[in-house]
Every structure is written in C-alpha cells, then in structure tokens.
C-alpha cells in the first residue's frame, strides 16, 4: 500500500456492509457496496429490499495514510490480503461492477474457488454444517450426498454463496469412502 488512492476490499461483520460503507463515506473515505434489489417474503407481506451482491465485503478507495482509519470503522474487520499485502483492485473492475449493478439484469456472485467435484460445507441456512460434493446437474450447481450402501445420490440446489470449500484432509475424516 502506498500514498496513491487505490481500491481495496475490506471484510465486515455479517450484515454490516451498508452501515460500514455509510460510516466510511461519512469520514471522507470513498466506499462502495454493490447492492441488488431482492423480493423478500415474510408471513404477512412481500417487500423489495436492497442487499449486498457480495456478502461481508466493502470496497474502499484508500492509501497507507488512511489504512488504520478504515480499520477503526464500526463493522470493518480486516483488509483482504493476497501475497502478504492488501489486495489492490483495479479501478476498471470497480467501474465494471458498478455498471453491472446499475442494470436491471439479475446479478449473482459466486466464489471463484468453487468447482464441480470439490468437497464443500454449507455455511448458512437450514442445511448449515452439511457436507457434500459440488456437482453440475442439468446446468445447475448442486450439493450431493452419496449414500453408498444403497447406491443413491441425494442432491439439493443451493446458492454457491452459501458454500465454502473443505480442506481435503477434513473431508477424508468425514467422508470415509466417498
């Protein structure tokens, strides 16, 4: 990180993206949270709400002078590092993201590290903690659980945002003879 203002990503507490971005902007630090409109259903009503495209991330335009100030903002946990230093994001990628979010097209974010065949764990929702294999079936990503004894595979369609890859040695302890 140097004196030039560059875009970086910071990780926030869960559901603190909008608040952290607001507080950063209030402190004069440019912050951006890509938001999308989602229709949410409650027992008594339906409502369009704005939710982050990328959960727990806020993009900040900062430099080494403002580094500590960013970390002092409520909800900000840490910078995202790559190769031992904060990962700088090219300006054109932020502009492209802003353009994409500004359209009426359906936008979805999936972790780049998830590939079919990987062993994954569900991180949220009613299946949180469930482990399985990520598979492609009829063009959709699904998590599969193999029941070896009856030679059947049970699959569920799930958002990739709700998955994280398992370390292979963790999988060996759980899966046995997958």
Quickly describe the structure.
With 178 residues, the protein is an alpha+beta fold.
Mean pLDDT reading? 83
| Amino-to-carboxy terminus distance | 45 Å
Uncertain parts: 169-178
By helix and strand content, what is the structural category?
Answer: alpha+beta
CATH architectural group of the largest domain: 2-Layer Sandwich
* Percent of residues in beta strands: 35-45%
Tell me the Rg in angstroms.
Answer: 19 Å
* 3D shape: globular
The SSE order reads: EHEEEEHEEEEHEEEEEH
In the CATH hierarchy, what is the superfamily of the largest domain? NusG, N-terminal domain
Q: Helicity, in percent?
A: 10-25%
**Count of all domains:** 2
Please tally the β strands and state the result.
14
CATH class of the largest domain: Alpha Beta
Largest sheet: 5 strands, antiparallel
CATH topology of the largest domain: Alpha-Beta Plaits
Number of helices: 4
